[in-house]
Amino acid sequence: MIALHAQASTVTSSGAKPGQTVQAAPPLVAVDGLRVSFTRGNREVQAVRGVTLEVAPGEILGLVGESGSGKSALGLSLLGLLPTNPAPKVSGSAVVCGVDMVTASPEDRRLLRRRHLGAVFQDPMTSLNPTMRVGRQVAEAMGEGQQVVELLSSVGIPDARRRAEAYPHELSGGLRQRVMIAMAIAGSPALVVADEPTTALDVTVQAQILDLLRQLCDQLGTSFILITHDLGVAAQASDRIAVLYGGRLAEVGSASELFTASRHPYTRGLLRSRLLLDTDRSRPVATLPGEPPDPRAYPPGCAFAPRCPARTEECEVSPPALSTLPDGRQLACLHPLDGAAADGLRVVPEPWEVPQELRDAARAPAVVINEAHKTFTLRSGLKRLHLQALRGVNLEVAKGEAVALVGESGCGKSTLLRAIAGLLPIEQGSIEFGRGTPPQMVFQDAGASLTPWMTIGELVGERLLEEGLSRRQRAERVRAALALVGLPAEVADAKAAQLSGGQRQRAALARATVVPPGILLCDEPTSALDVSLAATVLNLIGRLRRELGMAVLFVTHDLAAARMVADRIAVMYLGRVVETGTSDELCRQPAHPYTQALLSTVPDLGRAGVRIEGEPANPLHPPAGCAFHTRCPDAVEDCATRAQVLVTIGREYPARAVACSLVAPAPTGGADGRS
Asked: Rounded distance, CA 329 to CA 438, Å?
C-alpha cells in the first residue's frame, strides 16, 4: 500500500492574510530533475528536460509558454497519464501527495488519481461520454442522487437537477466545462491539473470558470496547476507562474512579479506580444522573432539564445541552471534583465502605412448585409424545433476596412460568416457584394481545412486554375503568395502534416489571398494559438489587408484581439447586432450594457470586473423585447416588451449605433434608426 498525503489545512504563504501566522507545510507536489522524452519516427523528442518545481497546498500555479514548451507533458507526468505505447523515457522524480509518479506502479497511480487527483482538459466533449447523461457520469466520480445535484450546483450550474439528466451535446461549452470541473473536484482532491480549460470558451464563460477555480481553491484548499497559453488568464487566476521554454523552466515567481518586473528575456517577449485593451493600434504588435526550438535537436546552450536580443557567446555553450534570486523568484538566465536593460533591447515596430487608394475608397462597400435571417430546424423526438441563429442582422463592411464580430458562443457570429461565404443560405434579407473577387474564408483549425494528401503548392495553386495561367506562371504566383505570408518556397512541396501550427495558418492565408478576395472572412484564426504566434498571425492579417486592399470580417471572442485587428467592432447577442463603433471608442466607452459586461470580463492581473449572471437566452425560444433583458442589471419593465433597434449616435463616419432604449431611444414614427 502507498502512504497518501493528508491534505494540509494550515494557511500557506500563498493564502496568508496580513498579520496571520504562517505555518510551513510540506509541498504537495515536488518535481526534481524530471525528464520526459518520446520516440517519434526513430528520433527522440525531448518534451521535458530537467524540470525542478514545487506546488504548495492550496496554491494555484500557472504554467505558461509557447506550444511545444512541455506544459502538457509535465501535467500528464504529474497525473501518471503519459502514453504507454510506445512508453516514453522518464527519469528524475515527480512526487505528488507523497507518491513518486515516475516509479509508482500503475495500480498505485490509479489509486492516487481516484482519491487525491483531478483533471480538466481543454475540450470537454472529448472527455465526456456522449452516450451517458452527465449526472450519471458525475455519479461515477462521487455519490448518487442529491450528492450529484449538490456538486453540480457548487460549480455554478443553474437548475442542476434538470441539467443532470442532459447529455453532453445538450449543454453549452461553458456548462460542459463546469461538469468536467465537478467531476475533477468530486471527493475534494488535493490537486487538480487543468490543461487549457478556458481556451475554447468566450470571455464571459472564461471569467466564470476562473472565478470558480479561485473559489474552489479557497474553500476546499485544493491546489491547481493551470496550464494555459493565455497570459491574462494566468495572471488573473494564479498565485505563482512558471514559464517554460524548450522543456525547461525559464522563470518562476509570483504573478505580480512576473507581470510587472520579469527578468528573463523570453518572459519579457511573451508579455510584449500580449494584447491589451490599450495596446497601440497604430503599429504591429511586437512579437518574438524566429521559431521555438525543434525538440528533436535542441541547441547546446540556452534554447532561447537564437531568438534572444541579449545573447552572448557564453549563452551558446551550455544551458543556464535555474537559480534562486534574493527576492525568492527563480531564473535560468546568464544575463537577467533589469528595467534599463529591457528598455534598451525593446524593438518598436514601424506604424502601419495605409495606401492612398484605400483612403479614397474607404466608403465603397465590400459587403452589405440587410435584415439577414437564418433558422435551423432541429428534431427532438417527433417534434421539430426552430433555432433562430440570425434574427435580422444589418451590417456593412467598406472596401479595405476591417470589422470584428464579437459576442458569446451561440450569438450567430460564425453563422453570419458562413452565410457571407455562401456556405449557408439565408431565408430572409440580402447579402450584397461590391466589386471584386468572391470572399474567401480562413478557419480556426487550419490543419483541418487543408487537404492532407495535397502539397501546399497544389492547395494554393488550385485557386489559380481559372486564371488562364501556364504551369510555370502558376508556380511563380504560388511562390509569391507563400513569400507574402512569410513562408519559404520549399514549403510548396510539403504537406500540411509536415508544418507547424503557425506555418499551417500562414499556408491557409496564402491560399485565401493568392487571388485577393474582396473580403477575407476569418473565423477565430488565433483562438487556439499561443500569445506570440497569435500576435504574428494578427500582424500578418493586418499587413495583407493593407497591401492587397481587401476588407476583413474577423470573428473572435478575444476583445483585445478584435480591437487590435479591426477598425470597427460589431457586438452580437442572440442573432442580432446590438452595438457598433470604432474599435477605440467602443472599447473605451461601451454604450450597451452587454458590451460593458463583455469588456469587464477580459482577464488581466488584478482585474475583477462585473460578471454577467446567468446563461444566454435560448435561441429556440428567444425572449420578447430586448433579448439581453433577462441578464441585464439595468433592465426595466419596458425592456421585456419593446423591441430594440440599432439607433445611430452622432453624425461622424463611421457611425456609432446601439440597440438599447435606455441609452439611445428609438425615433418616433416607426423609424428603425439604422444608418
From this structure: 54
E strands, 209-263, are: 223-227, 240-245, 248-254
How far from chain centre, in Å, is Cα 426?
30
Q: Which range among 80-84, 371-375, 550-554 shows the weakest confidence by mean pLDDT?
A: 80-84
Which residue ranges form the domains of the chain, and what is each CATH number?
29-238 (3.40.50.300), 356-439+517-658 (3.40.50.300), 449-516 (no CATH)
Neighbouring C-beta atoms of residue 5, cutoff 10 Å:
21
**Element spanning 330, H or E:** strand 330-331
Measured distance between the N- and C-terminal CA atoms of the chain, rounded to whole angstroms:
73
Half-sphere exposure of 22 (CA within 13 A, CB side): 13
Residue tagged 428609438 (cell numbers): 666
H or E element that contains 269? helix 265-273
The yes-or-no verdict on residue 99 having pLDDT over 90 is yes
d(CA 57, CA 26): 8
- At residue 632, the 3 state secondary structure works out as coil
The pLDDT, as a whole number, for residue 190 is 92
Q: How confident is the model at residue 241 (pLDDT cuts 50, 70, 90)?
A: very high
Of 646, 608, 614, 640, which is closest to residue 627 (Cα–Cα)? 640
Coarse DSSP helix, strand, coil percentages of the chain, rounded to the nearest 5 percent: 35, 20, 45
pLDDT band, very low/low/confident/very high, at 416 (cuts 50, 70, 90): very high
Sequence-separated (6 or more) residues with CB below 8 Å from residue 37: 44, 45, 46, 47, 48, 88, 89
Q: Report pLDDT digits (tens) over 101-124.
A: 999 999 999 999 988 999 988 778
Query: For a pLDDT cut of 90, what percent of the chain falls above it?
Result: 41
